[in-house]
Amino acid sequence: MSLRQDPMAASAELIILLESLCKSPKDFLSYDGHCNDSTVESLSNSLVCTVGEISTWPSASNVIPGQVTFTVDLRAMDDMGREAALYELSNRMYEICARRSVSCIIERKHDANAVISDSELTSELKFAANAALKRITGEIQDEVPVLMSGAGHDAMAMSHLTKVGMLFVRCRGGVSHSPAEHVLDDDVWAAGLAILAFLEMHV
C-alpha cells in the first residue's frame, strides 16, 4: 500500500479539500492584497461548490485507476472572491497531488461573471411583494428577504441588454429543479399579485 500512486485516493482528498474550503473560506484564503475582509465575508455567505461528475479509467473493481477525472462547479456572488477561492484551491490541489506522486491537470471549462440585480428593480419588487402579502393577509409582513441566487438564470444572459431583477417563489424544503419540488398555491397567488403590483408601478 505504501508504494501506491493512487489517483482515486488523491481525488477523494481533493474533493474533501474542496468541501472544506467552501464551507470555511476564511480558514483557507490568504490576505495578499487580492483578498480582503469584505471579499472573505462575501464568500462566507455565498460560496457554493459541487462535484457532480467523477469517472475513472480503466474502471475495474480490483485495479488502481490510471486516471480519475472529476468536475468542480464553484459559484459566488463576488467575482474577485471566486477567483481567490479558485487560486487557493488550485495551489492546494497541486500540493496534494505532488505529495501523493500523481500528476494533476486542472482545466477551466466555463467562466461566467456574477451579475448584480438592479437596485431600483429590487426595491420595487420588494415593495410589490409586501403589497401583495398585505393584500392577502391584511397585515404588514416582516421584511421581504433579498436573496443571492447561485443558479445561472436567463437574467445573466440578458444583463448586458437591460436591467435585471428576479422574484422567487419559495419551494418546500428549499428543493427546486427536482421531481420533489413543491410550491404552495398561496405562494403562487402571492407571487402573481406581486407581479401585478409591480406592473402597476410602470403603467
From TrEMBL:
Keywords: Endoplasmic reticulum, Hydrolase, Manganese, Metal-binding, Purine metabolism, Signal. GO terms for biological process: purine nucleobase metabolic process. Its EC number is 3.5.3.9. It catalyses: allantoate + H2O + 2 H(+) = (S)-2-ureidoglycine + NH4(+) + CO2. Its main location: endoplasmic reticulum. It is found in: Endoplasmic reticulum. The keyword Manganese applies. The keyword Signal applies. It is an enzyme of class 3 (hydrolase). GO terms for molecular function: allantoate deiminase activity; metal ion binding. GO terms for cellular component: endoplasmic reticulum. It comes from the Eukaryota. Homodimer. Involved in the catabolism of purine nucleotides. Can use allantoate as substrate. The sequential activity of AAH, UGLYAH and UAH allows a complete purine breakdown without the intermediate generation of urea. PANTHER family: ALLANTOATE DEIMINASE-RELATED (PTHR32494). Belongs to the peptidase M20A family. This is allantoate deiminase. The lineage of its organism: Eukaryota, Viridiplantae, Streptophyta, Embryophyta, Tracheophyta.
